[in-house]
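# nightly structure sweep
# worker-07 picked up a monomer target from the shared queue
# config: single-sequence mode, recycle default, output format = structure tokens
# input follows
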Amino acid sequence: MRELLSSLLDWYLGALDEGGYLLVAVLMAMESSIIPLPSEFVIPPAAHVAHTRGTMTLTGVVVAGTLGSWVGATVMYWASRLLGRPLLMRYGRYVMITPEKIEKAEAWSSHYGTMGVFVSRLLPVIRHLIGIPAGVVRLNFLWYSIATLIGSAIWCTVLAWIGVTAGQDPELMAGSVHRISLWVGGLTAFLGVLYYFFVHRHMRR
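# output follows
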């Protein structure tokens, strides 16, 4: 486990030296679409590199992550708007968009409206799905983009702060499985609480 985590981290940190902001943007675009790539594993390492190596800046990482998130979210919006709900319900499962996910996202969107787009960018699970109902109901794209950009900027800023703070933990940087578990467990618990209070309880109702 330790070797695997260390290998993945070493690869990503090395790739950041060459890929830089573009790599961050591409990965965050993937995260905001149908690909299950957690932003928690994209922004913090990039922020750590920016803070320690100086090859990037924290502001640049946040901007790259925000723009990448917007690109991915835009693809989801227009794909849903052009395809429509029937096609998504029938064929979405082939690209990991199940009818259940669509219905949950629709329930969230109908309850919270445009503000829900902004809030969703700060929540796990729902953040990469909100573009589906927004596109289906033809939510104003300008407002959708503004909400997405602001929400993503805040989320990327929080993750960048976590990356810098975590980077100051020598045991974590040394690959301590115990320390990694503490950080990952803490972040997972925090995201779980957000999801439960803002999404899960509403979905059950």
